[in-house]
Specification:
Blueprint lengths: L6 H21 L30 E6 L12 E5 L5 H11 L4 E4 L1 H5 L4 H7 L3 E4 L12 H19 L5 E2 L8 H9 L3 E3 L27 E7 L2
Parallel strand pairs: 1-6, 2-3, 3-4, 5-6
Antiparallel strand pairs: 1-7
Helix pairs in contact: 5-6
This protein binds zinc ion.
Length: 225
């Protein structure tokens, strides 16, 4: 925590850190990522405070569900691209005239040149899911920033469009990751319903976030100087 920070900012930051913990606790158990590393819950995600290195005001908004007036959903597909699955997903979306947001693992995209451009050309959004599917709460600010910036640059370079959204692997993010996302002007997108490979053919099941009917977004004002 920054020395001498006004009390109001400190209080707000603590409050929003609590929201993050609740969200992460609610969704982490349902998250399935490709395990470049294992999620490690030994350290509380809110144990750290952000390191402020920007003189300007910035904030991060975390969304885990929205309440659109129309009956619509947002499809998001994580952890790709893969040579096996991404073409199949693109074909399904094309057949249904549907668009989706792909949360990209940078290292995988680097190994499959052209995959992101194909998805972008077909009208899909590409967004940031870190370089190696890293748990952002288990690394320092410079690691988190490099992971997200490297992925950001790859997506922008391969598609010509800079991503604007980040999804933290395992749904885990704390004030350090939030501050990095804020500096990159990212919105942090979680999820309200999770379908895995094993239950994709079955009905969509209620998830813990449905216990938060009125809580859809939280904006964390990390610093205002
Ligand atoms: Zn993931």
């Amino acid at each position: 925590m920054t020395e001498g920070a006004p009390t109001g900012q400190v209080r707000r930051r603590r409050f929003l850190a609590g929201l993050s913990l609740f969200t992460v606790g609610g969704v982490a158990g349902t998250a399935v990522g490709y395990a470049a590393e294992q999620a490690n819950a030994a350290e509380s995600p809110t144990a750290r405070t952000e390191i402020l290195n920007s003189p300007r005001a910035y904030e991060a908004t975390v969304t885990w569900r929205t309440e659109p007036s129309a009956r619509v959903i947002a499809l998001t597909i994580d952890d790709g691209p893969t040579r096996e699955w991404t073409p199949q997903v693109l074909a399904i979306l094309r057949n249904h005239g549907a668009s989706a947001t792909f949360f990209i693992v940078g290292a995988r995209a680097e190994g499959d040149p052209g995959a992101l451009a194909r998805a972008a050309d077909e009208g899909h959004e590409l967004a940031n899911h870190t370089w190696l599917h890293s748990d952002l709460t288990q690394h320092d600010q410079s690691f988190d920033a490099e992971s997200l910036e490297r992925t950001h640059d790859l997506i922008a370079g391969q598609t010509g469009r800079a991503p604007t959204l980040c999804r933290p692997p395992y749904g885990r993010i704390d004030s350090v990751g939030l501050s990095v996302c804020a500096e990159m002007h990212y919105r942090v997108m979680l999820w309200s319903n999770h379908v895995t490979g094993s239950d994709a053919a079955g009905p969509m099941s209620p998830r813990p976030s449905t216990a938060l009917p009125s809580l859809t977004t939280a904006t964390s004002r990390l610093a205002q100087v």
